[in-house]
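Progress note, project year one: complex with zinc ion.
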Amino acid sequence: MVEEQNIGAADVLIVIDVQNDFCPGGALAVPHGDEVVPIINRLAARFRHVVLTQDWHPPKHFSFASSHPGKKPFETIAADYGQQVVWPDHCVQDSPGAAFHPALRIPHAALVLRKGTNPAIDSYSAFYENDRKTPTGLVGYLRNRSLQRLFVAGLAFDFCVRYSAEDAKREGFSVAVMEDACRSIDVEGSAAATRESLTALGITCLSALAAA
Ligand SMILES: [Zn+2]
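Model obtained:
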């Protein structure tokens, strides 16, 4: 679709969390996460509109296993807003791990949206915190700029990319996930579950490489 249809003024690439902590050597490394960087750089060059998201937690964030005595990373806890996976400490505000991967080169990105800043709520989606009610403001930004067709890439496919794409679809945007410009954490079958869920919601999975 990317090659068949010209990328236009109403299209936007949303690049999810391409940060050091989600790449090999980082605190919450997504296997082969760094492989998306050159793919996304090339893809982004085709878009006039690009939004970057950045996971950006205060120290002792609620989503960290270290904030819950006795809990280990990748276990779940019962939060007020439902089940929450707890993670290794990651993407602490202004830390090197929270910085974008140094090879990410998207100088024309107009918005960097930071999420997960609320100490008590995690935020997988670029649109809503994990309570599913608190908006980040991204819907307003996109609508205000008349951006209608969203292409989503980044890390991780089965968490923040998934939740962002699904929320965008529910908000009425046209959404495609650039699957080969994503990598998965794959906790307990989460990658396969993501493919099923995206398909069920009518979200297209496309290849960035095929379009290059
Ligand atoms: Zn996080």
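The chain has a mean pLDDT of 94.
The pocket of zinc ion is lined by residues 55, 57, 63, 90-91, 116 (CB under 6 Å).
No further modelling is planned for this target in the current period.
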